[in-house]
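Sample 3 of the quickstart, ligand pyridoxal-5'-phosphate:
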Amino acid sequence: MRWVVVATSAGIVACAYGYMRHLKKVKAAARRAEMMLAEKGGPPAAEKLIPYSKQSVDEEDIAEVAKCLREPFLTTGPRVTKFEQAVAEYVHAAHGVACTSATAALHMAVAAAGISAGDEVIVSNMTFAASSNAVLYEGGTVVFADIDEATLNIDVTKVESLITPRTKAIIAVDLCGQPVNLTALLEISRRHGLVLIEDASHAIGATYDGKMIGSIADMTVFSFHPVKNMTTGEGGMLVTNNEAYAAKARSFRSHGIDLDFRKRQAQAVPHRYDMNALGYNYRLTDIQCALGLAQLKKLDFFIKRRQEVAAFYDREFAKDAAIVPVVDLPNVTNAHHLYVICLRLDLLTCDRDVFFKALRAENLGVNVHYMPVHYHSYYRDVLGFASTVCPTSCKMYDRIISLPCFPQMTEVDQLDVIHAVRKVAAAYKR
Ligand SMILES: *Cc1c(COP(=O)(O)O)cnc(C)c1O
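Result:
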Protein backbone atom coordinates (compact mmCIF):
# COMPACT_ATOMS: atom_id res chain seq x y z
CA MET A 1 0.00 0.00 0.00
CA ARG A 2 2.69 2.46 1.02
CA TRP A 3 4.67 1.46 -2.03
CA VAL A 4 1.75 2.32 -4.26
CA VAL A 5 1.42 5.77 -2.68
CA VAL A 6 5.11 6.47 -3.22
CA ALA A 7 4.94 5.27 -6.80
CA THR A 8 1.87 7.37 -7.52
CA SER A 9 3.44 10.48 -5.95
CA ALA A 10 6.59 9.99 -7.96
CA GLY A 11 4.43 9.61 -11.03
CA ILE A 12 2.63 12.84 -10.29
CA VAL A 13 5.91 14.69 -9.66
CA ALA A 14 7.41 13.38 -12.88
CA CYS A 15 4.28 14.24 -14.74
CA ALA A 16 4.16 17.77 -13.27
CA TYR A 17 7.83 18.27 -14.08
CA GLY A 18 7.27 17.15 -17.64
CA TYR A 19 4.28 19.42 -17.97
CA MET A 20 6.20 22.41 -16.65
CA ARG A 21 9.00 21.78 -19.11
CA HIS A 22 6.44 21.55 -21.82
CA LEU A 23 4.85 24.85 -20.69
CA LYS A 24 8.24 26.52 -20.66
CA LYS A 25 8.89 25.32 -24.19
CA VAL A 26 5.48 26.52 -25.36
CA LYS A 27 6.07 29.89 -23.69
CA ALA A 28 9.52 30.22 -25.24
CA ALA A 29 8.09 29.36 -28.64
CA ALA A 30 5.29 31.88 -28.14
CA ARG A 31 7.83 34.50 -27.10
CA ARG A 32 9.97 33.72 -30.16
CA ALA A 33 6.91 34.03 -32.37
CA GLU A 34 5.91 37.24 -30.63
CA MET A 35 9.38 38.68 -31.14
CA MET A 36 9.44 37.65 -34.81
CA LEU A 37 9.27 40.73 -36.99
CA ALA A 38 6.01 41.23 -38.84
CA GLU A 39 8.01 41.84 -42.01
CA LYS A 40 9.47 38.33 -41.55
CA GLY A 41 6.04 36.76 -41.09
CA GLY A 42 5.56 37.26 -37.35
CA PRO A 43 2.38 38.70 -35.83
CA PRO A 44 2.34 42.55 -36.06
CA ALA A 45 2.70 44.30 -32.69
CA ALA A 46 -0.52 46.24 -33.30
CA GLU A 47 -3.63 44.59 -34.66
CA LYS A 48 -4.71 47.70 -36.57
CA LEU A 49 -2.70 50.64 -37.87
CA ILE A 50 -1.94 53.18 -35.13
CA PRO A 51 -1.42 56.56 -36.85
CA TYR A 52 1.27 58.96 -35.59
CA SER A 53 -1.42 61.51 -34.79
CA LYS A 54 -5.09 62.16 -35.42
CA GLN A 55 -7.89 64.52 -34.48
CA SER A 56 -10.29 64.08 -31.56
CA VAL A 57 -13.72 65.27 -32.71
CA ASP A 58 -16.77 64.55 -30.55
CA GLU A 59 -20.53 65.10 -30.74
CA GLU A 60 -20.26 68.54 -29.14
CA ASP A 61 -17.88 69.66 -31.92
CA ILE A 62 -20.29 68.34 -34.55
CA ALA A 63 -23.28 70.06 -32.90
CA GLU A 64 -21.45 73.41 -32.83
CA VAL A 65 -20.63 73.18 -36.54
CA ALA A 66 -24.22 72.20 -37.35
CA LYS A 67 -25.51 75.14 -35.32
CA CYS A 68 -23.33 77.55 -37.27
CA LEU A 69 -24.62 76.17 -40.57
CA ARG A 70 -28.18 77.12 -39.53
CA GLU A 71 -27.19 80.72 -38.82
CA PRO A 72 -26.70 83.68 -41.20
CA PHE A 73 -22.88 83.96 -41.17
CA LEU A 74 -20.83 81.19 -42.71
CA THR A 75 -17.81 83.50 -42.98
CA THR A 76 -16.69 86.96 -41.73
CA GLY A 77 -19.23 86.55 -38.93
CA PRO A 78 -19.18 86.71 -35.13
CA ARG A 79 -17.58 83.31 -34.57
CA VAL A 80 -14.35 84.43 -36.23
CA THR A 81 -13.87 87.30 -33.77
CA LYS A 82 -14.95 85.09 -30.89
CA PHE A 83 -12.43 82.41 -31.85
CA GLU A 84 -9.64 84.95 -32.28
CA GLN A 85 -10.36 86.44 -28.87
CA ALA A 86 -10.65 83.03 -27.21
CA VAL A 87 -7.29 81.82 -28.58
CA ALA A 88 -5.57 85.14 -27.79
CA GLU A 89 -6.94 84.97 -24.25
CA TYR A 90 -5.86 81.33 -23.86
CA VAL A 91 -2.27 82.09 -24.90
CA HIS A 92 -2.18 85.48 -23.10
CA ALA A 93 -1.63 87.49 -26.29
CA ALA A 94 -3.26 90.83 -27.05
CA HIS A 95 -4.37 90.01 -30.63
CA GLY A 96 -5.32 86.99 -32.68
CA VAL A 97 -5.76 86.92 -36.46
CA ALA A 98 -7.39 83.71 -37.70
CA CYS A 99 -6.57 82.46 -41.19
CA THR A 100 -6.81 79.45 -43.47
CA SER A 101 -3.64 77.67 -42.29
CA ALA A 102 -0.40 78.10 -40.38
CA THR A 103 1.22 78.52 -43.79
CA ALA A 104 -1.02 81.55 -44.39
CA ALA A 105 -0.26 82.79 -40.86
CA LEU A 106 3.49 82.52 -41.55
CA HIS A 107 2.98 84.43 -44.79
CA MET A 108 1.02 87.12 -42.91
CA ALA A 109 3.80 87.34 -40.28
CA VAL A 110 6.54 87.69 -42.89
CA ALA A 111 4.52 90.40 -44.68
CA ALA A 112 3.72 92.19 -41.42
CA ALA A 113 7.44 92.16 -40.56
CA GLY A 114 7.98 94.01 -43.83
CA ILE A 115 10.21 91.37 -45.42
CA SER A 116 10.87 91.98 -49.13
CA ALA A 117 13.43 91.21 -51.83
CA GLY A 118 16.99 91.44 -50.52
CA ASP A 119 16.03 90.79 -46.90
CA GLU A 120 17.40 87.73 -45.16
CA VAL A 121 15.47 85.63 -42.68
CA ILE A 122 17.11 83.01 -40.46
CA VAL A 123 14.95 79.85 -40.33
CA SER A 124 15.33 76.65 -38.35
CA ASN A 125 16.42 73.93 -40.77
CA MET A 126 14.56 70.95 -39.31
CA THR A 127 10.97 71.88 -40.04
CA PHE A 128 8.11 71.59 -42.47
CA ALA A 129 8.91 73.51 -45.68
CA ALA A 130 6.12 76.03 -44.97
CA SER A 131 8.29 77.72 -42.30
CA SER A 132 10.81 78.89 -44.88
CA ASN A 133 8.49 79.01 -47.92
CA ALA A 134 6.75 81.97 -46.27
CA VAL A 135 9.95 84.00 -46.65
CA LEU A 136 10.12 83.13 -50.36
CA TYR A 137 6.50 84.26 -50.95
CA GLU A 138 7.59 87.82 -50.12
CA GLY A 139 10.81 87.62 -52.14
CA GLY A 140 13.07 87.28 -49.09
CA THR A 141 16.19 85.11 -48.80
CA VAL A 142 16.22 82.07 -46.52
CA VAL A 143 19.28 81.47 -44.34
CA PHE A 144 19.06 78.11 -42.58
CA ALA A 145 20.13 77.75 -38.97
CA ASP A 146 21.35 74.40 -37.68
CA ILE A 147 19.73 72.58 -34.77
CA ASP A 148 20.65 71.37 -31.32
CA GLU A 149 21.15 67.60 -31.12
CA ALA A 150 19.21 66.98 -27.89
CA THR A 151 16.04 68.99 -28.64
CA LEU A 152 16.18 69.23 -32.47
CA ASN A 153 15.30 72.93 -32.02
CA ILE A 154 17.27 75.84 -33.47
CA ASP A 155 20.81 75.99 -32.01
CA VAL A 156 20.89 79.48 -30.50
CA THR A 157 24.68 79.42 -30.28
CA LYS A 158 24.87 79.33 -34.08
CA VAL A 159 22.32 82.05 -34.88
CA GLU A 160 24.45 85.12 -34.34
CA SER A 161 27.12 84.10 -36.86
CA LEU A 162 24.40 84.02 -39.56
CA ILE A 163 23.34 87.64 -39.03
CA THR A 164 24.33 90.13 -41.74
CA PRO A 165 23.31 93.77 -42.32
CA ARG A 166 20.44 92.37 -44.45
CA THR A 167 18.97 90.10 -41.76
CA LYS A 168 15.46 91.22 -40.80
CA ALA A 169 13.90 88.35 -38.88
CA ILE A 170 14.27 84.93 -37.29
CA ILE A 171 11.69 82.15 -37.74
CA ALA A 172 12.19 79.60 -34.96
CA VAL A 173 10.20 76.36 -34.81
CA ASP A 174 8.97 74.71 -31.59
CA LEU A 175 9.62 71.18 -32.83
CA CYS A 176 7.43 68.43 -31.35
CA GLY A 177 5.72 71.08 -29.18
CA GLN A 178 8.84 71.99 -27.21
CA PRO A 179 9.43 75.77 -27.15
CA VAL A 180 12.71 77.09 -28.52
CA ASN A 181 15.13 79.01 -26.30
CA LEU A 182 13.12 82.24 -26.36
CA THR A 183 15.32 84.04 -23.83
CA ALA A 184 18.37 83.75 -26.09
CA LEU A 185 16.45 84.40 -29.33
CA LEU A 186 14.73 87.52 -27.95
CA GLU A 187 18.04 88.85 -26.65
CA ILE A 188 19.71 88.33 -30.06
CA SER A 189 16.69 89.81 -31.87
CA ARG A 190 16.63 92.92 -29.71
CA ARG A 191 20.37 93.49 -29.98
CA HIS A 192 20.28 93.26 -33.80
CA GLY A 193 16.88 94.85 -34.39
CA LEU A 194 15.30 91.65 -35.76
CA VAL A 195 11.67 90.48 -35.66
CA LEU A 196 11.25 87.15 -33.85
CA ILE A 197 8.58 84.96 -35.45
CA GLU A 198 7.79 81.71 -33.62
CA ASP A 199 6.39 78.87 -35.70
CA ALA A 200 4.42 77.22 -32.89
CA SER A 201 2.42 74.97 -35.22
CA HIS A 202 3.20 72.12 -32.78
CA ALA A 203 3.09 74.12 -29.59
CA ILE A 204 -0.23 75.76 -28.78
CA GLY A 205 -0.68 75.20 -25.04
CA ALA A 206 3.05 74.85 -24.31
CA THR A 207 4.80 77.13 -21.84
CA TYR A 208 8.25 78.69 -21.54
CA ASP A 209 9.49 79.88 -18.13
CA GLY A 210 5.89 79.64 -16.94
CA LYS A 211 4.56 81.88 -19.75
CA MET A 212 2.19 80.73 -22.47
CA ILE A 213 3.60 80.26 -25.97
CA GLY A 214 2.06 83.05 -28.00
CA SER A 215 2.72 85.72 -25.39
CA ILE A 216 6.51 85.98 -25.84
CA ALA A 217 7.78 86.25 -29.43
CA ASP A 218 6.96 89.28 -31.63
CA MET A 219 4.56 87.11 -33.62
CA THR A 220 3.56 83.49 -33.01
CA VAL A 221 1.87 81.15 -35.46
CA PHE A 222 -0.41 78.17 -34.71
CA SER A 223 -1.77 75.41 -36.97
CA PHE A 224 -5.19 73.81 -36.69
CA HIS A 225 -4.57 71.01 -39.19
CA PRO A 226 -6.19 67.73 -37.99
CA VAL A 227 -2.89 66.14 -36.89
CA LYS A 228 -2.00 69.13 -34.71
CA ASN A 229 -2.97 69.71 -31.06
CA MET A 230 -6.45 71.02 -31.93
CA THR A 231 -8.23 71.36 -35.26
CA THR A 232 -10.51 73.45 -37.44
CA GLY A 233 -10.08 71.09 -40.43
CA GLU A 234 -7.59 73.42 -42.05
CA GLY A 235 -6.78 76.63 -40.23
CA GLY A 236 -4.23 78.73 -38.42
CA MET A 237 -3.75 81.84 -36.37
CA LEU A 238 -1.21 84.58 -35.87
CA VAL A 239 -1.05 85.98 -32.33
CA THR A 240 0.88 89.05 -31.25
CA ASN A 241 1.03 91.77 -28.61
CA ASN A 242 1.88 94.32 -31.32
CA GLU A 243 -1.15 96.19 -32.61
CA ALA A 244 0.54 97.30 -35.84
CA TYR A 245 1.48 93.71 -36.78
CA ALA A 246 -2.08 92.57 -36.03
CA ALA A 247 -3.58 95.32 -38.20
CA LYS A 248 -1.22 94.51 -41.09
CA ALA A 249 -2.01 90.81 -40.83
CA ARG A 250 -5.76 91.50 -40.81
CA SER A 251 -5.54 93.60 -43.95
CA PHE A 252 -3.20 91.08 -45.64
CA ARG A 253 -5.66 88.29 -44.85
CA SER A 254 -8.41 90.06 -46.76
CA HIS A 255 -6.98 91.39 -50.06
CA GLY A 256 -5.17 94.34 -48.45
CA ILE A 257 -8.49 96.08 -48.00
CA ASP A 258 -8.43 98.84 -45.39
CA LEU A 259 -11.22 98.04 -42.93
CA ASP A 260 -10.95 101.36 -41.10
CA PHE A 261 -11.52 103.21 -44.36
CA ARG A 262 -14.80 101.36 -44.74
CA LYS A 263 -15.83 102.29 -41.21
CA ARG A 264 -14.90 105.94 -41.77
CA GLN A 265 -16.81 106.07 -45.05
CA ALA A 266 -19.79 104.02 -43.95
CA GLN A 267 -21.99 107.04 -43.36
CA ALA A 268 -21.16 109.07 -46.46
CA VAL A 269 -20.65 106.45 -49.20
CA PRO A 270 -21.52 103.00 -47.84
CA HIS A 271 -20.35 101.09 -50.92
CA ARG A 272 -16.78 102.45 -50.93
CA TYR A 273 -13.82 100.43 -49.77
CA ASP A 274 -10.13 100.87 -50.41
CA MET A 275 -7.44 98.33 -51.23
CA ASN A 276 -4.19 99.99 -50.19
CA ALA A 277 -1.82 97.01 -50.20
CA LEU A 278 -1.57 93.69 -52.02
CA GLY A 279 -3.24 91.02 -49.94
CA TYR A 280 -4.79 87.56 -50.23
CA ASN A 281 -7.95 85.78 -49.24
CA TYR A 282 -6.75 83.87 -46.18
CA ARG A 283 -10.02 84.12 -44.23
CA LEU A 284 -11.08 81.30 -41.92
CA THR A 285 -14.81 80.54 -42.07
CA ASP A 286 -17.28 80.76 -39.17
CA ILE A 287 -17.96 77.06 -39.70
CA GLN A 288 -14.32 76.29 -38.96
CA CYS A 289 -14.27 78.75 -36.05
CA ALA A 290 -17.30 76.97 -34.56
CA LEU A 291 -15.22 73.79 -34.53
CA GLY A 292 -12.21 75.70 -33.20
CA LEU A 293 -14.19 77.20 -30.31
CA ALA A 294 -15.48 73.76 -29.30
CA GLN A 295 -12.00 72.21 -29.63
CA LEU A 296 -10.31 74.95 -27.62
CA LYS A 297 -12.36 73.99 -24.56
CA LYS A 298 -10.74 70.54 -24.70
CA LEU A 299 -7.22 71.65 -25.57
CA ASP A 300 -5.89 71.32 -22.00
CA PHE A 301 -7.20 67.77 -21.86
CA PHE A 302 -5.73 66.92 -25.30
CA ILE A 303 -2.32 68.22 -24.23
CA LYS A 304 -2.48 66.43 -20.88
CA ARG A 305 -3.18 63.15 -22.67
CA ARG A 306 -0.31 63.72 -25.14
CA GLN A 307 2.01 64.50 -22.22
CA GLU A 308 0.93 61.33 -20.42
CA VAL A 309 1.67 59.21 -23.49
CA ALA A 310 5.06 60.92 -23.88
CA ALA A 311 5.92 60.45 -20.19
CA PHE A 312 5.06 56.73 -20.41
CA TYR A 313 7.30 56.32 -23.49
CA ASP A 314 10.09 58.29 -21.77
CA ARG A 315 10.00 55.97 -18.75
CA GLU A 316 9.94 52.83 -20.89
CA PHE A 317 12.60 53.84 -23.43
CA ALA A 318 14.97 54.81 -20.62
CA LYS A 319 15.52 51.01 -20.44
CA ASP A 320 16.52 50.74 -24.13
CA ALA A 321 20.06 51.89 -24.92
CA ALA A 322 19.45 52.19 -28.68
CA ILE A 323 16.37 54.41 -28.31
CA VAL A 324 17.01 58.04 -27.30
CA PRO A 325 13.90 60.22 -27.01
CA VAL A 326 14.13 63.97 -27.67
CA VAL A 327 15.05 65.66 -24.39
CA ASP A 328 12.55 67.94 -22.63
CA LEU A 329 14.14 71.04 -21.11
CA PRO A 330 13.36 71.85 -17.45
CA ASN A 331 12.02 75.38 -18.06
CA VAL A 332 9.36 74.38 -20.60
CA THR A 333 6.22 72.31 -20.83
CA ASN A 334 6.13 70.42 -24.10
CA ALA A 335 2.70 70.26 -25.81
CA HIS A 336 3.84 67.02 -27.52
CA HIS A 337 2.33 67.29 -30.94
CA LEU A 338 5.02 64.75 -31.79
CA TYR A 339 7.00 62.11 -29.96
CA VAL A 340 10.35 61.68 -31.68
CA ILE A 341 13.00 59.06 -30.92
CA CYS A 342 16.59 59.20 -32.16
CA LEU A 343 18.21 55.84 -32.91
CA ARG A 344 21.69 55.03 -31.61
CA LEU A 345 22.85 53.66 -34.96
CA ASP A 346 26.14 52.59 -33.39
CA LEU A 347 24.20 50.01 -31.38
CA LEU A 348 22.17 48.74 -34.36
CA THR A 349 22.99 46.77 -37.47
CA CYS A 350 20.38 48.61 -39.56
CA ASP A 351 19.84 52.20 -40.66
CA ARG A 352 16.82 54.39 -39.89
CA ASP A 353 14.92 53.44 -43.03
CA VAL A 354 15.17 49.70 -42.35
CA PHE A 355 14.03 50.31 -38.75
CA PHE A 356 11.24 52.55 -40.05
CA LYS A 357 9.95 49.98 -42.56
CA ALA A 358 10.01 47.28 -39.89
CA LEU A 359 7.85 49.51 -37.64
CA ARG A 360 5.41 50.16 -40.49
CA ALA A 361 5.09 46.38 -40.92
CA GLU A 362 4.26 46.20 -37.19
CA ASN A 363 1.28 48.47 -37.96
CA LEU A 364 2.71 51.67 -36.53
CA GLY A 365 1.95 54.74 -38.67
CA VAL A 366 5.42 56.10 -37.92
CA ASN A 367 6.72 59.17 -39.71
CA VAL A 368 9.86 61.29 -39.96
CA HIS A 369 9.74 64.93 -38.82
CA TYR A 370 11.49 66.35 -40.68
CA MET A 371 13.78 66.00 -43.63
CA PRO A 372 16.07 69.07 -43.56
CA VAL A 373 14.35 71.63 -45.77
CA HIS A 374 17.39 72.14 -48.01
CA TYR A 375 17.19 68.47 -49.10
CA HIS A 376 13.98 69.24 -51.05
CA SER A 377 14.72 69.47 -54.76
CA TYR A 378 13.24 72.98 -54.98
CA TYR A 379 15.67 74.24 -52.36
CA ARG A 380 18.56 72.23 -53.81
CA ASP A 381 18.04 72.65 -57.56
CA VAL A 382 16.10 75.89 -57.91
CA LEU A 383 17.48 77.86 -54.96
CA GLY A 384 20.92 76.25 -55.04
CA PHE A 385 21.34 75.21 -51.40
CA ALA A 386 24.41 73.03 -50.84
CA SER A 387 23.80 69.70 -49.12
CA THR A 388 26.51 70.63 -46.61
CA VAL A 389 24.56 73.34 -44.76
CA CYS A 390 23.33 72.42 -41.27
CA PRO A 391 25.36 69.23 -40.61
CA THR A 392 23.66 68.48 -37.26
CA SER A 393 20.22 68.65 -38.85
CA CYS A 394 21.40 66.22 -41.56
CA LYS A 395 22.97 63.87 -39.02
CA MET A 396 19.85 63.81 -36.84
CA TYR A 397 17.58 63.34 -39.85
CA ASP A 398 19.27 59.96 -40.43
CA ARG A 399 18.31 58.86 -36.92
CA ILE A 400 14.82 60.16 -36.14
CA ILE A 401 11.40 58.48 -36.14
CA SER A 402 8.09 59.94 -34.90
CA LEU A 403 6.04 57.42 -32.91
CA PRO A 404 2.24 57.49 -32.48
CA CYS A 405 1.18 60.10 -29.90
CA PHE A 406 -2.36 61.47 -29.70
CA PRO A 407 -5.10 61.92 -27.07
CA GLN A 408 -7.26 58.83 -27.69
CA MET A 409 -4.41 56.32 -27.59
CA THR A 410 -5.35 53.45 -25.30
CA GLU A 411 -2.97 51.75 -22.90
CA VAL A 412 -2.91 48.76 -25.26
CA ASP A 413 -1.94 51.08 -28.16
CA GLN A 414 0.94 52.47 -26.12
CA LEU A 415 2.14 49.01 -25.08
CA ASP A 416 1.92 47.88 -28.71
CA VAL A 417 4.10 50.81 -29.77
CA ILE A 418 6.72 49.99 -27.14
CA HIS A 419 6.60 46.29 -28.01
CA ALA A 420 7.05 47.08 -31.71
CA VAL A 421 10.04 49.35 -31.10
CA ARG A 422 11.67 46.78 -28.76
CA LYS A 423 11.04 43.97 -31.20
CA VAL A 424 12.71 45.83 -34.05
CA ALA A 425 15.56 47.06 -31.83
CA ALA A 426 16.17 43.46 -30.65
CA ALA A 427 16.13 42.07 -34.18
CA TYR A 428 18.74 44.59 -35.32
CA LYS A 429 20.83 44.71 -32.15
CA ARG A 430 24.53 44.97 -32.94
C1 LIG B 1 1.90 71.86 -39.87
C2 LIG B 1 3.01 72.85 -39.91
C3 LIG B 1 2.97 74.02 -40.67
C4 LIG B 1 1.86 74.30 -41.64
O1 LIG B 1 0.63 74.20 -41.06
P1 LIG B 1 -0.69 74.26 -42.00
O2 LIG B 1 -1.73 74.71 -41.04
O3 LIG B 1 -0.88 72.88 -42.50
O4 LIG B 1 -0.40 75.24 -43.06
C5 LIG B 1 4.00 74.91 -40.58
N1 LIG B 1 5.06 74.67 -39.79
C6 LIG B 1 5.15 73.55 -39.06
C7 LIG B 1 6.34 73.35 -38.19
C8 LIG B 1 4.14 72.60 -39.12
O5 LIG B 1 4.27 71.46 -38.44
